[in-house]
Design goal:
37% of the residues lie in helices and 20% in strands. The protein contains 3 helices and 4 strands; from the N terminus they run E-E-E-E-H-H-H. Strands 1-2-3-4 form a 4-stranded antiparallel beta sheet, with helices on one face. The mean pLDDT is 81.
Length: 101
């Protein structure tokens, strides 16, 4: 006859990732660091926002989303041959002027 264990079952381990009230923003519990988790062109991107403050994380998330989506759009346009060299790599303004001076 097999006896049922009477010892209490171990509680589930604490989850490593915690959802936030903001979309595409998650928090790694052990370090408290916020991460961006978003999909661009079907590819999942998870990148550290290098902060443990939610207000800073929201600002950096917006910048990261804009940069990733812009890069994906430029890559698509470049692959389709709809961009010129100047559009693909725009001059950096002051750095270009200083280099030619």
């Amino acid at each position: 006859m097999i006896e049922a264990s009477t010892a209490p079952q171990a509680a589930e381990p604490e989850k490593d990732w915690q959802k936030t009230q903001y979309s595409n923003l998650i928090r790694y519990v052990s370090s408290g660091t916020y991460y961006a988790r978003l999909r661009v062109k079907g590819k999942l991107i998870r990148r550290s926002l290098k902060t443990d403050t939610i207000t800073v994380a929201k600002l950096r998330l917006a910048d990261l989303e804009k940069a990733e989506r812009g890069a994906a759009d430029r890559q698509k346009a470049s692959a389709q041959g709809k961009m010129t060299f100047g559009q693909r790599w725009p001059p950096t303004g002051n750095k270009l002027k200083q280099a030619t001076s």
